[in-house]
Specification:
240 residues, alpha+beta, 4-stranded antiparallel β-sheet, 5 helices, 35% strand, globular
């Protein structure tokens, strides 16, 4: 009879299994179960212009767990009043915002020259692929492209808001005694509109809203986050 051997019968079968640490996978961190729901929040009024009613003001409700970090400021923009051959917004739609102020009874944040700050951060840290994909939405493109957008009535734009408080993570809104208010001061057109017009150009914003997400968590998890925020502890939004 022919003698046959199996793998587990030879010496290799007696060697213990060893898994190198380099390929061991740690158990992934788990957060509390929950869901996210997108919201569009309207400002105080329906339209704004650079020459009148030039402070866009959002008054957020004092309830829920809101994540502003994925949010953005969105609107339709029209350029009017010029008599030149072109009128375009300076590179990046954020150039139309001069000041960002966040208050809740007391002032939480106040950024002056916001458009210039945002543009500096965008130019130094942006991903080229992100710029090419979101260029039209962000108002970031060539002079020819921006001329076309400037000539388009009610051209739609969106811009993320680089507000430090909003980027810290989900915010338990119920902790505030007064409404959380966001104020966006519009820039002087002479500083943010490029044109050969001898007469002033006015920019107007309509269909204005702020986009954000509301987190729905179990009561225990929501209470834990609220307690951490009240104690001044920064919690990791990536775990939610």
């Amino acid at each position: 009879m022919q003698n046959t051997s199996r793998y587990n019968d030879d010496k290799l079968g007696m060697v213990p299994s060893v898994i190198p640490n380099s390929i061991k996978f740690a158990r992934p961190k788990q957060g509390p179960p929950g869901t996210r729901k997108e919201f569009r929040f309207n400002p105080d009024t329906t339209s704004y212009a650079s020459n009148t009613n030039n402070i866009v003001r959002f008054r957020f409700n004092n309830d829920g767990l809101i994540d502003f970090s994925r949010g953005f400021f969105a609107f339709d923009l029209s350029l009017t009043g010029g008599t030149g051959t072109y009128a375009r917004v300076s590179q990046g739609i954020w150039s139309i915002v001069n000041r960002v102020r966040l208050t809740t009874g007391n002032e939480l944040e106040d950024m002056r020259e916001y458009g210039r700050l945002h543009n500096l951060l965008w130019e130094t840290h942006r991903d080229p692929e992100v710029g090419s994909v979101l260029g039209e939405v962000y108002g970031y493109g060539t002079q020819s492209q921006r001329n076309t957008w400037g000539a388009t009535p009610t051209k739609d734009y969106a811009m993320p808001l680089l507000c430090g408080f909003f980027l810290t993570g989900p915010i338990p809104m119920g902790l505030f005694n007064q409404m959380l208010t966001l104020e966006l001061y519009l820039e002087d057109p002479l500083r943010c509109i490029e044109t050969d017009s001898p007469t002033p150009v006015v920019f107007t914003l309509t269909n204005v809203y702020f986009h954000y997400e509301v987190l729905h968590l179990e009561n225990a998890a929501a209470s834990s986050l609220a307690a951490a925020a009240a104690a001044g502890i920064r919690y990791d939004k990536k775990k939610v």
